[in-house]
UniProtKB/TrEMBL annotation:
Name this polypeptide is given: Methyltransferase type 11 domain-containing protein
GO terms for MF: S-adenosylmethionine-dependent methyltransferase activity
Lineage: Eukaryota, Viridiplantae, Streptophyta, Embryophyta, Tracheophyta
Record-annotated Methyltransferase type domain positions: 217-322
UniProt organism field: Adiantum capillus-veneris
InterPro entries recorded: Methyltransf_11 (IPR013216), Methyltransf_Superfamily (IPR050508), SAM-dependent_MTases_sf (IPR029063)
Length: 425
């Protein structure tokens, strides 16, 4: 088994992983100093030797990752600059022109950095991936209005083979941009995915009360890149990847089958599910970790709340929800140059709502406890929350006993482990 920082090459997106003590999920490195903060200052992830590139000898980026001066970028929300950009984007011919330009820039910069965007897409489209969609698609799924929009310059958003065939390259391109100090794509992946995975495991160890991780759900798994990272990192867990795009999960499953045919079999094969993240149809209390990686910037606030409620229902007591995505407080994101933030807004319909949302507050509102948020790379935060082992269920009953003029109040609270019927607010 590979140690922390060593690449595990399941799939073309390499992922870091560290050894787990049998069934316990402890990392093999004894001395780690992760500082977890609640989003008000800079954050460091760990300490070890820094290389000149700013990447640690253990393969993950050293903090502190810097926060800007604002609570959210001025190009988002209701700010004048934000409204001006939104007005420009709403002019259809201008939007079409921007989308075209944006695509050329994305493809060009990816290929310049060694990501063979067009080749990967062509290979996918020429394969027999199409049959997987028939096997996985749940035809009863109703797509919410917020989902059937132009995302990432694709008129059909996430619901097309073209989008599905380009996801892997687009993800690599995003990672290269996010970790500019990395020497190459592999190093950038180690940093971005490694810090995220470490934040999850560290948090779970501290807050779960039982560090054993048996089942993991990756909501918004796309073509399975984050899902494979989770499966590589927690090899003893049964991992499920779920996405609302049947095209994307088809690509994920197709890749697994290709790898299995080439002799790369997992001890516990990943399950792929086509479903709505807010209403998965999966059994209550059947997961130890529910992860949403880069999902909620694609959702309006109501949908994010729905996703959190469903995660709450699916987690076992002591379970961990983890959301990683763009950080409104990231200095780099706050200082993006106008062409870049215009491009971002033009390709992400829910950007303004996302950046204005109080994610940590929403997590508490839904019922999670010990909510923590930290920058895990220069652009992204990972927010974690726990489903308390002890949950209050039902109405308290009051019993007041009068004894020689002194009243004794007995409150009979029905405390129990979170039960299947416990619905978050
Ligand atoms: C940027 S991709 C996620 C990437 C992936 N998790 C990773 O880290 O590489 C966002 C994904 O979320 C999915 N998604 C968005 N809203 C969803 C919802 N309500 N339920 C399930 N999946 C959703 C999209 O289809 C898309 O595949």
């Amino acid at each position: 088994m590979a140690a922390w920082g060593q690449p595990s090459v399941w799939g073309s997106q390499m992922c870091v992983r560290w050894q787990q003590k049998k069934g316990k999920g402890f990392p093999i490195e004894a001395s780690r100093s992760t500082s977890i903060i609640t989003s008000s200052s800079t954050t460091s992830v760990a300490s070890s030797t820094m290389l000149s590139s700013g990447v640690s000898s253990k393969g993950f980026l050293m903090g502190p990752f810097q926060e800007g001066k604002l609570s959210q970028p001025s190009w988002t929300g209701d700010e004048p600059l934000s409204r001006l950009v939104s007005a420009l984007i709403s002019i259809k011919p201008l939007f079409a022109l921007m989308s075209l330009g944006a695509r050329q820039v994305l493809i060009g910069s990816a290929e310049k950095n060694g990501v063979p965007w067009r080749k990967l897409s062509e290979e996918c489209l020429a394969s027999d991936v199409y049959a997987e969609k028939d096997l996985l698609e749940d035809k009863s799924v109703i797509y919410p209005d917020y989902y059937v929009k132009n995302f990432h310059c694709y008129p059909d958003g996430n619901l097309s083979w073209k989008a599905a065939s380009e996801v892997e390259a687009a993800t690599s391109s995003m990672i290269i941009r996010a970790i500019p100090k990395a020497k190459n794509l592999e190093e950038a992946i180690k940093v971005l995915r490694g810090n995220w995975l470490r934040a999850i495991e560290d948090y779970h160890l501290v807050h779960s009360g039982n560090p054993e991780i048996r089942d993991i759900l990756d909501v918004g798994c796309s073509v399975g890149i984050s899902t494979r990272c989770l499966a590589d990192t927690f090899p003893s867990a049964q991992v499920t990847g779920l996405d609302l795009s049947p095209y994307f999960v088809a690509v994920a499953q197709h890749k697994d089958k290709k790898e299995a045919a080439a002799g790369k079999r997992r001890e516990k094969p990943i399950h792929w599910v086509h479903a709505l993240g807010e209403n998965t149809g999966l059994r209550a209390q059947s997961f130890d970790i529910v992860s949403l990686a880069y999902v909620i910037h694609e959702c309006p606030q109501d949908a994010t709340k729905g996703l959190l409620k469903e995660a709450f229902r699916l987690l076992r007591p002591g379970g961990t929800v983890a959301l990683t995505d763009n950080s409104p407080k990231s200095k780099i994101i706050q200082n993006l140059p106008p062409p870049l933030f215009t491009l971002m807004k033009a390709s992400e319909p829910w950007m303004d709502e996302y950046y204005s949302m109080d994610l940590e507050g929403l997590m508490y509102e839904v019922g999670f406890t010990n909510v923590k948020s930290q920058l895990t790379d220069p652009r992204h935060r990972t927010a974690t929350g726990s489903l308390s082992n002890l949950q209050f269920r039902g109405e308290p009953s009051l019993l007041i006993i009068m004894y020689r003029g002194t009243s004794l109040l007995i409150v009979d609270m029905k405390w129990s482990n979170a039960s299947e019927g416990l619905a978050p607010q």
